[in-house]
Description:
By secondary structure, this protein is an alpha/beta fold. Helices cover 18% and strands 34% of the residues. The protein is built from six helices and 16 strands. Helix 5 links the parallel strand 12 (189-193) and strand 13 (212-216). The two termini are 29 Å apart.
Amino acid sequence: MKKQIIDLTVRQTVHVHERYVLLKLTHEEPLPEMLPGQFVEVRVDDVPSTFLRRPISIHFVDREKNELWLLVAAVGDGTRRLARLRPGDTLNCVLPLGNGFTMPQSADERLLLVGGGVGVAPLLYMGAEMQQQGCEPTFLLGARSQKDLLMLDEFRKYGRVLVTTEDGSEGERGFVTNHSILAKEQFTRIATCGPKPMMVAVARMADKLGIACEASLENMMACGVGACLCCVEKTTEGNLCVCKEGPVFDTKRLLW
């Protein structure tokens, strides 16, 4: 898939949480094809401490409005600058990058999409694309508390949404791997993205249940094309660059 470097225009900035902002970006030309699980590298301007681009998962692509959505966690100088972007501002992006999730081959497949924190981002687009294929996903989303759950109304547009919170303020109390649905229903495949401890736990659970599992890794990725080697992950095939060989991996390939 051909990579492009383009200036996207901010159409809307939505503060969905005290730490998270949703950027809706557009372009005068039709946006390129993008797959669920791929990411973009964005240039952060006017921040002296931020020299390298920042990798951000593709959250959603609205073809009718020609919009690309990016869900940004404002946790450092660069991402806090992105959170201050306003309609009409320009954001230079390299896209699309990396390899995406394996999409269902038939409407009979039952996929469980498991996310935590800002890791829920790529799962929305995946769910929307699955719905287009006639396959309804089940989302299992976890957070510390009710106030940390993100974009639930958007997820509900594309499938069933199940929730866990560590304090029990919404959904079932505990971690995503504790949810009762895992004992009640069988799934053919799991896709997950979020904090590494969560993904490791999901991968081990999937292995125990004999379910195929893919994880989207969130290693720091400065170049996005496998040149800088800062995102290397140990795998059964040796050290691989997450930005080029991933970010989505079959968890059986990962030395977790």
